[in-house]
Amino acid sequence: MRFHLPDAKKLVHEVVIPLRWGDMDAMGHINNTLYFRYMEVCRLEWMYKVNGKIDLTGQGPIIVNAFCNFLRQLEFPGDVRVTMYVTNPGRTSFESYHVIERTDQPGVVYAEGGARMVWTDYAARKSAPLPEAVRARLTA
Fold first, then answer.
1. What's the Cα-to-Cα distance from 117 to each of 17, 21, 70, rounded to whole Å?
2. CA-to-CA separations, 58 to 53, 55, 80, 127, in angstroms, rounded
3. What is the mean pLDDT of each run of 10 residues along the chain (140 residues)?
4. SS3 state of residue 135
5. DSSP letter for each residue of 12-62
């Protein structure tokens, strides 16, 4: 099942990640858990650019929901390009979407997924308003 990427999306980050031989499972393809890791790497690189180093005594994002649609099997060797989009900023949250393609097959989507991110006061363990600097990076 393919998801529909919202029209009001904003491309925010892209990363290329090598597929490793050790990431393959007994079936000879990249294990499905690694797709979430690829999205995580892209999301964290972007968050560090937006918010700097995460301070667990301050505020920052947490994931409250994550999903991945596996469309094709990734196999070693090669590299994947993970593209990240953001949309729907609310008072405390926003959506992130990711598209995973092989670099040697541009336009062929191997997986797509995303996560709902909630800005959180880590010490209070509750949601907090998105900082204006973060909100500015989320809007087109």
1. 23, 31, 21
2. 11, 5, 33, 12
3. 67 96 93 96 90 80 95 97 94 96 97 95 95 83
4. helix
5. EEEEEEE--GGGB-TTSSB-THHHHHHHHHHHHHHHHHHH-S--TTSEEEE
pLDDT at 9: 83
**Is the whole-model pTM more than 0.90?**
no
Q: What is the rounded CA–CA span in Å between residue 70 and residue 138?
A: 26
Domain 10-138 has CATH 3.40.50.970: no
The residue ranges of every structural domain in the chain are 10-138
Nearest to 93 by CA among 131, 55, 124: 131
